């Protein structure tokens, strides 16, 4: 068995594996795809001390750093069940079972997509999911935010300080965001909120986004907005479906952790975007991976 088994090979998992291996304990990583969401990222400008890098390049460095240590890295395997006997067991979709004295869950999350024509084609070319990451790329330009929940309205307020103007498109007839955020957004001269708007297509010129088309659900009329960027803010879904019977999750499915990264199952820790940490970023997930590994080590020396 492993002393520490990390499930997930994104920045949180890689960081947890390095911190665990540096304690000289038997460490394994099992992941569907090494690198996680970072593999899908084009430019990264907020990984502190590295002014600019690109997703695949950062993933290559992560992998190289992990390989400096004796870590068993198993990829293209998906964890399907977590249970506890004498040891903690992670059952894979392939049917195999991995056993460990402690487990760190770092399975990340995925942005909910609009599923409209043009979205995939222009992903990273104007279609964005993270205002903290990509907001500055649209300085002085027109953008839309899709979704009028807390993350959408927060994004609109955030972007309004950088871009020329922001149009928020909300599908229903009410905004689900907190009142204080809605009031703030409505007070900004360069923010427009359109309700009952269903985005139907991302428009581009072959290289980048030039606008979007939406349908007014009241009148069925189609409208076009000229834009440089579209921030999709309709939800970040944690990859925790397989854990709902074994761990305490929030109502959104995030794994509940404490300051040591401990979950509701003794010996099981979690880190990164799959947890209830409020902000989801590379640098934050790496920090939480380190915390979870130190938490796991602390658990091992006490048990
Ligand atoms: P993830 O990166 O999601 O990694 C999860 C890992 O778990 C993967 O290896 C995956 O294969 C694996 N996995 C999932 N389920 C299972 C399972 N059941 N069994 C086994 N393995 C599993 N953040 C920034 O700080 N700066 C940016 O510029 C930036 N840009 C972004 C751009 C895009 C397009 C996206 C999508 C995200 C961006 N982010 C950015 C956010 C950042 O990528 C995430 O916060 C970060 O990757 C989270 O790390 P993680 O390790 O928690 O999860």
UniProtKB/TrEMBL annotation:
Q: Which cofactor does it need?
A: FAD
Q: Which UniProt keywords are present, listed alphabetically?
A: Disulfide bond, FAD, Flavoprotein, NAD, Oxidoreductase, Redox-active center
Location of the FAD/NAD(P)-binding domain: 2-283
Q: Which family does it belong to?
A: Belongs to the class-II pyridine nucleotide-disulfide oxidoreductase family.
- How does it associate, per the subunit comment? Homodimer.
Job description of the protein: Serves to protect the cell against DNA damage by alkyl hydroperoxides. It can use either NADH or NADPH as electron donor for direct reduction of redox dyes or of alkyl hydroperoxides when combined with the AhpC protein.
Protein name, per record: Alkyl hydroperoxide reductase subunit F
Q: Name the source organism.
A: Marinobacterium maritimum
Q: Which gene encodes it?
A: ahpF
